[in-house]
Every structure is written in structure tokens, then in C-alpha cells.
Design brief:
The protein has one domain. The protein is an all-alpha fold. Helix 1 crosses helix 4, helix 3 packs antiparallel against helix 4 and helix 7 packs antiparallel against helix 8.
Length: 218
Amino acid sequence: MFKPIRWNTFIRDFIRIQIGFLLFGLAITLMIRGNLGTSAWAVLEVALAPKLHISIGTMTVVMGFMVLSGALLMREKLGWGTLANILSIGPWEDFWLWIIPSIKNNLPLQIGMLLLSIFLMGLASAIYIGVDAGAGPRDSMMLAIKRITGISIRAARAIIEVTVVSIGWWLGGPAGVGTVIYALLVGPSVQWGFKIFKVQPHKPMEPEVFAGIEGGAE
């Protein structure tokens, strides 16, 4: 199911969603440059990028389209924000990777980068999911699992992260102690972000939205 575009708020929503993507790309970059271990998806994408001779950001885009197919099979609601997520986070990631240097042999700074990245990940997820233009492919998968099984967002996220990081580690990705810390804290961080921004995924469609669909709105 695809969400109709709310044209009256599209510019505001687009700006807000891009802020979320910018922060998300920054969060991923901080983990990569901190060299303590990355998020599950980054472990996999960093492992695959050199094998395919493409940038990490480009690999993120490719992976996004692959995960999107899974979310579609689980009948998760998608929208223009889903496509924007796939096409935006990778370029933001490459931008921040170009700016932020790799940090090694500075444990306090590396730990700070890791914790900041997890904090930003929760905020970024809540910001762009809160636009309600369709969650990103990875978040769509998380929300679909929550919807189908009834488990918490925290548990759904954990299931996905453990599966992906196992594959990424097997392929030689940068898994480390930071990956474990991320896996333990990202679920609570996203849930906290939802509470801060009062995000309610899968809320009932409002009457005017049904009217828009019946009127042929995209």
C-alpha cells in the first residue's frame, strides 16, 4: 500500500525528512570513522562496497532497494519518503565520509563518536518516520515485523540487526565491540526518539486521506 502525497505540506515535509537523512548519514559515518565497529547494516555495506568496486554510500543505495523488495512482500505501507530515503542517505553518507577523518588510537574520542552516532540514529529515525511519508526500507522492514508479530520496535530491530551483522561479519565487515554496543542501544534510542517526537507508526488513516485516495490522489 502506498501513502498519498500531502501536497499542502510537501515542502515542509521534504525539508524535515532531509534533515533526518542528513543526521542518519552522519550517524553512520561517525561509526565508520570511529573504528570501534559499525551498525549491522554498515558492517555489511562496508564489506560489500570494495568487492563491488563502489563507494559505501552507493552500496547503501543498492542495499536499500534490495531491502525494499522484502518490505513490499510484507505489505508494509510505503510512500515517497521510502524512495527518498534510499536515494538520499547514501549520498549524505559519502559526503560525511569525505569530511570526517578516520580516528584511531584515541579511545575516549572513539567512544564519544560511537555514543553520539547511536543517539543521532534514534533522532534521525524518529524525524523522518514522523513525516509519515513512508519509512525507509530498513525501518519499513522493522515496522512490518512489529505489525505482523506484535513484538516491540526494540525486539524487531534487534532481530534484524543480529541477522545482518552476522552476514556482514562473515564477509569481513568492520564488526567490533561498537557493533555490540550499537545493537544493544539502538532499539531503545529509536523508541526514545519516537517518544520525544510523539511518532505513532501505523496510526489510522484520517478521513481526508481516504477522500484523497477515493478522489484519485497519488
